Fold these 4 entries.
Entry 1:
Amino acid sequence: MKVLFYCNNRAGGGHYRGIYPARALRRLGHQADWQVGFAYEAKEFRPLDLSYDVYVFRMASSSTAEALLQRLAALGKVGLVDVDDNVRTVPFYNPKFRVFRERGGRALRLERCVRAADGVIVSTPELAELLTPLNPNTFPLPNCVDLEDPVWNPRVERVGNRVTVGWAGSPTHLEDFRPLVPVLEAVCRRYPQVRVAVGGPRDVFDLLANIPEGQKEYLPPVPFRKYPEMLARFDIGLVPLLDNSFNRCKSDLKGLEYSALGIPFLASPLPAYTRLVRDGENGFLCPNRRAWFGRLCRLVEDEGLRRRMGEKAREMLADRMYERYAPLWEGILEALILRRRLLAAVGKA
């Protein structure tokens, strides 16, 4: 089987939804490749390389992608769309709100691509429930971490008795982080050894204006290959998420990243995290500010607890390795290839 993943970029999304699955399929003996963007022959409007059996479009939301999916079907090829966000409900405070939600925006175009595809791969059961009415061949295949990638074994030196409480993400999470600021201010007042680190958007770091300079650190955005090294500086990880329909469809990716590095973490109790976290074993679920404060204080005070929870988190990550899910990718893709061949044989392609 030959599979080509079209990635939007080589950042986190490109790795988790393209490069890592492709590598896992290679280990099963298939030819699986990836590229950023898609190249096509303009006159006949088809991919330049037609040797693949399956073409996977990540977050396809353009008229070009829709036309390519239709063309692939006519040529007897399998076209899939990979979706990892509920773009119908991007909240108004999200920088991408206008891009997806305005009239004729990318949310509508993505839905057209979903309808045109042979199948849809999604990252959570919640997304599968939303998209199945648009395409019955919708399959939830979760994000996984590829620990064979050497970036997940960074070397970071600890500094004295400092305890680094860290968060990293994109500018889309500014409002998710904001309610946690009073908690972090209180923790810093109680524990002078605590340093709050923010990786990525400067706007999020600027919310920490009331925390002393010596107790906070800004970590600029880095390429994905350096991202695990940045996270590894944390002793405790944070995953605050507002409870809304957009976030309830999000995956547990940030928790997986912390787990891969043996970092205990605290998370909001949204669906993906209630599935991932065994409260008090590999992390803590925090439904309110009181819980965030109390459980964060426990981890700051108890180095042994941080170590045990981090070890348990990494141990439980075995259930979310691509080796476990690669056979599911393989089975789904092979079934869709067979379906396409059967449709062609009866003249319904």
Note: DSSP finds 14 helices and 14 strands in the chain.
Entry 2:
Amino acid sequence: MCGIIGIIGKAPVTPLLVDALKRLEYRGYDSAGVATLVNGHIDRRRAEGKLVKLEERLVQEPLAGTIGIGHTRWATHGKPSERNAHPIATDRVAIVHNVRWARRWSACAAPSPWWPCSAAATTS
């Protein structure tokens, strides 16, 4: 089951987001990620596997920001991978969700680098 956390703070929120996600580990998950607002744009780090993998990535690539979201994902649809990990983000917005979304059409009107484009594209 997914875990979702959001923080609006006055100090860097990444350590708090990771700590909150650790408190949700009992729910089970296969990937994790965090995104923060940094100088007017979204920056994120994601990792397949347990939170220790995300923490290792954050040591190598620290993430600043006083506003952020975090997510642990249990792959109910789509394989466990960094590409499928949340948050899903562009330079201006990041989202996490705890539902299965499905789109079915023959062609994509607006392909996106963060949403797969196919006849039956899905993410969870």
Note: Residues 118-124 have pLDDT under 50 and may be disordered.
Entry 3:
Amino acid sequence: MQQRKNYVEIEEDNGTVLRYFHHTNGGGLVEATATVSPSAYIERSAYVDCGARVEADARVGTGAWIDRDAVVQAGAVIGTAAHVGPRSVVGRVAMIGPRVKVGARAHVCSGVRIEADTSVAAGALVRDRAGTRLRAA
């Protein structure tokens, strides 16, 4: 009987092979060089790319993608099919809605809520002390 692997390998366009392991809380795929807190929840069809960091009590929803070197801080929620771009930061307890696209190097500050189907431009700084929601245009 053949033993089943506990990881998935994906080859990039340049030939580099990335190895993803299933996170213990939710079963989502986490690349070997990413750091994900044991208390974070990574939905089974979500994945966290190399160098990314997902902190304590954060939640990453169905089909969501945390790109290279991105940071999802403690208690943040990433909605279904959302994409957090490379080197982006999602602040503590921020909420990223379904199908939101956060551009590369963008920073969504703590407590900010971004509504469904919204795009955050690359390099943008989204902050609001009152917790006002950013909506799709």
Note: The chain is about 0% helix and 35% strand.
Entry 4:
Amino acid sequence: MADDVQWRGPVGTGRIPRHGSTRRGNRPRRSGLAGSASSRGVLDRTRAAFPSRDALLATLAPRSGYGRAYGLERAGDNAGALVGPLLAALTVVLIGVRPILLIAAVPGVFAAIAITIAAREAGRAVAAPAGRRRISLNISALHQHGLIRALLPAAPFECGNVATTLMILRATDLLRDGGRGLAAATSLAIPIYAAHNAVAAVAALAGGALIDRLGSRAVFAAGAAAYVLAYAAFATGIRAWAWLLIAFCLAGIGIGLAETAQSTLVAHALPDRLRGSGFGLLGVVRAGGDLVSSAVVGVLWAALSPVVGFAYAAAWMAASLIAAIATVGTRQVPSPSGQINGVDQPGS
């Protein structure tokens, strides 16, 4: 859908059109919650709309500024995640851990309702034969443009990219081992996580500028290296809050650099007609890898120890770093259309 410029805007902003409303000259209609601000936020956080959003961003930004454009987008997303953790830390101190978990279930219910309605509207929108013809990931074309090879370092990265919830839980356990109670350890771990989001926002902005100068593969490698150090710190079991803060900040640097580099690489590697499929493939890699990484680390944590779990994640990040270093400096020839696909030059 995101490969079609007429679908790209409506889907990227959450305004899912109904049957036939994407024809030229027709204005897409808002449909229930799918067009509301709340459902757009849900769609964005669940990555349902990000292929269209990122493809649209590549259309609007100049090619020489893709890194800064995606860095700004990632910075905004991470900066927006600052208020929640800080408010949660204050609430934990005031009412405790159990009540806040019950309160947190309320927006989750509304999110589930919004996603259900948005998914139903999207299904109606693509029910027509014209809609079904547009849905294709175009793997063959993506491979011809070099995207499959370019994304090879992203696969091990996502296999090691564990949920931040596990990092918070690890930090809480380590702080409790240092003599703090559960409420005190939790209220300290959450602001440390907020620092992770703040650093990720700054790293995304700085990384975007570096990508436009040095290339996305080198910046991605730096992000993977930061994660190796962060996970190594979680595996060694440091208990001082200052060292845990450094570990979280390293993880923030890692995600800020890596996600910005991934998006920029896709935008540079593909012509406009394939960018939606390219970002869709990136989303599949991210979602699949994140699910596997968190599940496996959780199992290793429960069956063996958190040390083994985070050592496993660090090993995947090290593999991603090696793969990224191996591809730095590789070049491909321009396509017949004049687009340079997958070239490791400033911005790619």
Note: The domain at 63-93+137-331+339-348 is CATH 1.20.1250.20 (Growth Hormone; Chain: A;).
